[in-house]
Design goal:
Blueprint: H1 2-7, E1 10-14, H2 21-31, E2 35-40, H3 48-63, H4 72-75, H5 85-97, E3 103-108, H6 121-128, E4 133-139, H7 148-154, E5 156-159, H8 161-164, H9 168-177, H10 186-193, H11 197-205, E6 208-212, E7 218-222, H12 228-234, H13 241-250, E8 255-256, H14 258-265, H15 270-279, E9 284-289, E10 293-298, H16 300-313, H17 315-329, H18 334-343, H19 347-365, H20 367-375, H21 385-397, H22 401-413, H23 420-431, H24 464-476, H25 482-493, H26 499-516, H27 519-534, H28 538-541, H29 545-557, H30 561-575, H31 581-596, H32 599-614, H33 622-636, H34 640-647, H35 657-669, H36 673-681, H37 690-706, H38 710-724, H39 731-735, H40 737-750, H41 755-766, H42 782-791, H43 797-804, H44 808-822, H45 827-836
Parallel strand pairs: 1-4, 1-5, 2-3, 3-4
Antiparallel strand pairs: 6-7, 8-10, 9-10
Length: 840
């Protein structure tokens, strides 16, 4: 706070109730060494005259304590707002201009001033006060005053809820100060509250129960966080009745969109009240949710306490609102619809939703989550034939054939209670896991067992969903992707009855092709999947995480970093922490940010990487991905020694292909050539996709060059070029640009079957930052520099023209201009002069 008040004209502290705004500011005022005025507002200060009187009175109270000559004009002001409000405001500004020492004015609870704030004294001070007045505003939402000019020009420092929330360490320190022993896990309450200070305090102050951890020692943990009364008095009672009623209704769900807000409110103004909650800082934030649609998320603890309040006041209304939410989510998110129906005492609704959309639930959340949802149904609904059949499928996927068979018999014994529509759905459920027809589909082996990488999954009878899950297992084992593509092509062909599932299968197929190295196919299939999902609504769009991830991988290896970052950000919003797409997305975000050098984005992706690791989401050898990502982060910051230290635990290979390829290059750059050779040899005989093969071949070429084996260096470079050109795999060349420069020139003379591609890479090398260029470089135009780069190869003028999409005459014109500017007689002479002058 001190630094902010010293550096900025206006400091804004905006956070919901219970974040310690007043405590923070009062502590700051107490420690300040210059004059600080304090004004706490109430709901009557919405009257302009009362607010003006309060502001002037607060300033005069502090100015009167220090008899400085510049304070006289301020002390002479009339606290009453004149009929000519502009005249009173001008007099106040004039008095402030005469101050010889700075004064800070803190206005607390600014949200109580009402909507007319911008045209009152606070708006005038924010816009026009002289530098001697440091204005500090504190409230629950963003004030209704114009801040953009300050935000982007004259100086505004903002503190939000994220800045005021307790960190995990602060929560632990607070727990210790309250007398909790060293065995108390403050992290539990910190996670539940999100660091909300008043909630942390309430949770730490509640009676705790003793639990026993695996080592046998008792640990105390809080039972609950009792905040319902606080929220009722300090939040809801402070709101307009219509808005308070909306909050109680709309918090039936943690997530909602505008349509659901209207449905829950029961009035058409639900959308406007939702915007008012955002503006007023009422524990809600807007997010671009999955399919690109704006969704709104309540702070989960706040929403839970509001539900408790409504249940006490009107339990029947609370149940009805849950049923409304269940109907809303039935077709788009069955995982949300089922618990909402159960909360609304409507088990039939839950059964209907599960019966209609169990397959989508299965593919999105897994067999265990689906089975748990079935078990949570009360009797007799958990014995419904459809539910028993779905539970049977879950048991079969968990390789418990005995339980699956028993559940199937129980389901068949109850089919007489089904009507014709539900009987058809029941029969379809039975046939989903029967063998798919082989006609017109790839030859999928009758028994599938992944290679001995650990965690092998066997399936004697491949089926639509079974094939889909087997393909996902391929990604969990982070293999190349060819088998996953084969399995998904079979699954997609058999899933035509579920369009959203078919679109999801296409998205997964795009990712399989990206993992397999077919970047063009991955891009085409991902684009088709996304286009199709747009026409199927949010249910399908929510399954497009794999498609966005595939596009991000494609762009990364093509060295289109801005596009990669955008696609991966969309994938992350959809996938979240789901395994394995979430960790894989974050891994590639780290690679992209290391390549681009954007430190802001790198800090974000690093934090996401660590968050997933702390949650245990890097399973088995996926921990190697975490390690190599940390090494890449250290390398991108210029600390190669630290990068090698981090990567030391990986040894010299024997890991997954992606990790090995990145590790080999890191070891080479770090001067560990012997270890780099061993790491590359560890991949000998293993199938590598195009971009991994390209990257490893370039590492081997540079290792051979360093050892003096020129022939091997050219052989490996030619292999890399041959692999890279068809799919435009450019990132491995870009990240080794400086070291490849001389080798590429010699390779063009040595001879290559890919002259255009090699010449283009040399041209890219010529595009260095201005500070590396000599003055003579600027005597050539951009097109001339490009032509000069191609002239280093053995390409003819016609071939250069074809590569640059210009005419042969234009190329010859540029060549003559280059010769003239460099004083050269021909191509060889021009290249020699350009090299001497540092142009190439």
């Amino acid at each position: 706070m001190t630094a902010a008040a010293d550096a900025y004209r206006l400091t804004l502290v905006a956070a919901p109730a219970g974040y310690g705004k007043s405590t923070l500011l009062s502590e700051w005022v107490r420690k300040r060494d210059f004059q600080c005025a304090w004004l706490s507002l109430d709901r009557f200060d919405s009257q302009p005259a009362r607010l003006f009187s309060g502001v002037v009175g607060a300033l005069q109270a502090v100015a009167g304590q220090v008899p400085l000559p510049g304070n006289a004009a301020l002390m002479a002001l009339d606290q009453q707002l004149a009929a000519d409000r502009a005249g009173s405001y001008d007099s106040l500004l004039g008095a402030l201009e005469q101050l010889t020492e700075p004064i800070a004015l803190v206005i607390d609870d600014l949200h109580l001033a009402g909507p007319g704030l911008a045209n009152g004294v606070v708006g005038v001070l924010a816009a026009s006060a002289p530098p001697a007045l440091r204005l500090v505003l504190s409230g629950r939402g963003h004030p209704a005053i114009q801040l953009e000019r300050l935000r982007y020009g004259e100086g505004l420092r903002e503190f939000s809820a994220a800045d005021l929330a307790f960190t995990r360490g602060e929560a632990a320190e607070f727990a210790t100060s309250l007398g909790h022993g060293p065995g108390f896990d403050a992290g539990v309450i910190w996670h539940r509250t999100g660091g909300w200070p008043v909630a942390v305090q309430a949770g730490l102050g509640t009676p705790a129960q003793a639990v026993t951890v695996p080592d046998g020692s008792p640990v105390s943990r809080p039972v609950q966080v009792p905040l319902a009364d606080y929220i009722a008095e300090e939040v809801l009672d402070q709101l307009d009745p219509a808005q308070a009623e909306f909050v109680l209704r709309a918090t039936a769900c943690d997530w909602l969109d505008r349509r659901l807000a209207v449905e829950l409110n029961g009035q058409p103004d639900g959308g406007m009240l939702l915007e008012a909650c955002l503006r007023d800082g009422l524990f809600i934030e807007e997010r671009e949710y999955r399919g690109g649609e704006s969704m709104y998320r309540w702070q989960s603890l706040f929403a839970a306490q509001c539900r408790r309040i409504l249940e006490r006041r009107d339990p029947l209304l609370a149940e009805r609102l849950h049923r409304v939410a269940a109907r809303h989510y039935a077709e788009t998110d069955v995982g949300e619809s089922v618990p909402q129906a159960l909360e609304g005492k409507a088990p039939r609704q839950a059964v209907t939703a599960l019966g209609a959309y169990w397959l989508e639930f299965l593919l999105c959340s897994g067999a265990h989550a689906l089975e748990q949802a079935c078990r949570e149904l009360p009797a007799p609904w958990n014995d419904d034939p459809e539910i028993l059949m779905v539970s049977s499928v879950c048991r079969a996927l968990d390789d418990d054939s005995e339980a699956a068979t028993e559940l199937t018999y129980r389901a068949l014994a109850r089919t007489s209670m089904l009507d014709a529509v539900r009987r058809r759905k029941f029969d379809r459920c039975r046939t989903v896991f029967e063998p798919s027809s082989a006609g017109g589909q790839p030859d999928v082996p009758a028994t599938y067992a992944p290679a001995n990488d650990g965690g092998a999954l066997e399936c004697g009878r491949p089926t639509t969903s079974g094939l889909f899950l087997l393909a996902q297992a391929e990604f969990r084992l982070h293999r190349i992707g060819d088998q996953a593509a084969l399995l998904l092509q079979s699954a997609a062909g058999a899933a035509s009855h579920w369009e959203a599932v078919e679109a999801g299968s296409a998205a997964e197929l795009a990712l399989a092709f990206a993992a397999g190295g077919d970047l063009a196919a991955a891009e085409d299939i991902a684009t088709q999947a996304l286009d199709r999902a747009d026409g199927l609504g949010r249910a399908a769009q929510d399954r497009m995480g794999a498609a966005w991830l595939a596009r991000g991988i494609v762009c990364y290896w093509k060295d289109e970093l801005s596009g990669a970052r955008a696609h991966l950000a969309k994938a992350q919003r959809i996938c979240g922490s789901s395994f394995p797409l979430g960790p894989l997305t974050v891994f590639y975000e780290v690679l992209v940010d290391c390549a681009s050098g954007d430190q802001g984005h790198l800090a974000e992706s690093t934090a996401a990487l660590e968050a997933l690791y702390e949650q245990g989401l890097y399973q088995v050898s996926w921990a190697d991905f975490h390690t190599i990502a940390l090494a890449k982060i250290a390398e991108s910051k210029g600390d190669l020694d630290a990068a090698l230290t981090v990567a030391a635990s990986l040894g010299a290979g024997g890991r997954s292909p992606v990790v090995n390829v990145l590790l080999a290059e890191l070891l080479r750059r770090g001067g560990e050539r012997g270890a780099a050779v061993l790491c590359a040899q560890a991949l000998s005989g293993r199938h590598l996709n195009l971009y991994l093969d390209t990257s490893l071949s370039l590492t081997e070429a540079l290792l051979a060059q360093a050892s003096g084996d020129e022939a091997k260096a050219h052989q490996r470079l030619e292999h890399a070029v041959r692999q890279a050109e068809p799919q435009s795999v450019l990132r491995p060349f870009a990240e080794r640009r400086d070291e490849l420069a001389d080798l590429l020139i010699r390779h063009a003379v040595w001879g290559t079957s890919h002259e255009s591609f090699v010449a283009a890479r040399m041209a890219r090398h010529a595009e260095e930052p201005p500070h590396l260029r000599t003055r003579s470089y600027w005597t050539l135009t951009d097109r001339e520099r490009e032509v000069l780069a191609y002239m280093r190869s053995v390409m003819t003028a016609a071939e250069i023209a074809e590569a640059l999409f210009i005419s042969v005459n234009t190329v010859k014109t540029h060549e003559r201009s280059i010769y003239r500017k460099l004083g050269a007689a021909g191509r060889r002479d021009a290249l020699k002069t350009a090299a001497e002058r540092g142009i190439v």
